[in-house]
Amino acid sequence: MTATTQLQCVSCSRQYPLWELRYACDCEGLLELHTDLSGQHSLKELFEKRLLSRKLLDRSGVWRFREALFPVSAEDCVSMPEGQTGYYEVPQLGQWAGHERLAFKHEGENPSGSFKDRGMTSAVTAAKKLGMKLLACASTGNTSSSLAAYAARAGLRSLVFLPAGKVSLGKMAQTLGYGAVAMAVRGDFDDAMRIVRELALAGKVYMVNSLNPFRIEGQKTIIWELLQDRNWQAPAWILVPGGNLGNTSAFGKAIEEAYTMGWIAKKPRLVTIQAKGASPFYESYQKDFASLEPMAAETIATAIRIGNPVNFPRAVKAIQHTNGLVSVVTDEEIMAAKAAIDRSGLGCEPASAATLAGLKQLVQAGTIRESEEVVAILTGHILKDTDAIMKCQDLVCHEVDAERGAIERALDRFL
Ligand SMILES: *Cc1c(COP(=O)(O)O)cnc(C)c1O
Ligand SMILES: [Zn+2]
Fold first, then answer.
1. Ligand 2 center to residue 36 CA distance, Å?
2. To test the ligand 1 pocket, which listed residue (104, 109, 114) has its Cβ within 8 A of the most ligand atoms?
3. Is the whole-model pTM more than 0.85?
4. Backbone torsions φ then ψ of 66, nearest 5 degrees
5. What is the pLDDT of residues 12-29, one digit of tens each?
6. How much distance in Å is there from the Cα of 182 to the middle of ligand 1?
7. Order of all β-strands in the sheet with 134-138
8. Strand 181-185 with 5-9, pairing
9. 218 CB less than 6 Å from ligand 1?
10. Residue 159: which H helix or E strand, with range?
11. pLDDT of residue 130
């Protein structure tokens, strides 16, 4: 395996050495990792073989694919080991959406409870290799939890910026518990993001938001692992919620590379679903991606409450190259879908449920047809936002006297 990996500008294709510390091209374009993978078709067999391995790195759903990410040594890898998430066919949710051929990949089953761990294992590994000591991010709560956990594992410090009053208690507790220094910014996610970028450009911190190209590399493996779950038979459609659009970007790159390397015969079409109150990508899509108009974002799905997505140029490419589309759903639709997902036993946080809500809409519109297989990505665990369950699903735990007669009478009423 002698393929070399470089940083490459998404806008002008200029290349830089992989281990040069930079977040953007001189033209200000976003950077991504570029590896010449021609002739690497046989990697697929290697990835299959590793499913039987007991080595830590082979058991990670990220590092199992390491030859197609970037070169690192086993000692440098900071792994928990993440990934290896469940793939579920759930007929009752298919019925709910009016589409039988539906499966879910549950990324809430990662070590810190969201898909962010896949990008964080790769970003923290890169940070360690680069000799960085203080790692920072802006976050709506999941990136910060993930960074705090992986930085702790690596023995590095983490500094996180959160929109004040807009982070769920579970995510906040998790972030603090793992040992991050946290700042509640009086502003929204986009303000927090601006501050981290300024600090990073001034050389004060190493930024691990999905602007960081190493994050994208780890998150590609959501797609590769789901293809592996399906014996490398691509579904017709893949649905994912979109906020800062790191996942959308990573999925586009993963699909493109899997197709180029001949691991799959056809490309799945990528659908990004946004919440109506936080839908700048959708608005741009409506105008053929001519421009991006940032907006003041508001939605109950706090993980996608983002009005100025930093990955916009990469995400546009992802939608265009997969013949994909962008859709939008209301908070009411999100919470109805979430209740259905919770009751199926899978459970998820609100942002994840945008996928099922979006599917229902696209099926009704006739865009997704009966014969086409759909995989929806559940991005976060049900326990990430317990407030949203108790507020929206009208649930009660019945308080009873500790006496059998009273309980039997209560059962008559509630069962
Ligand atoms: C971060 C996050 C998203 C949004 O992903 P982007 O890559 O920012 O578009 C969606 N759902 C959950 C649970 C998240 O944590
Ligand atoms: Zn450039």
1. 19
2. 114
3. yes
4. -60, -35
5. 999 999 999 999 999 999
6. 20
7. 181-185, 157-163, 134-138, 206-207
8. unpaired
9. no
10. strand 157-163
11. 96
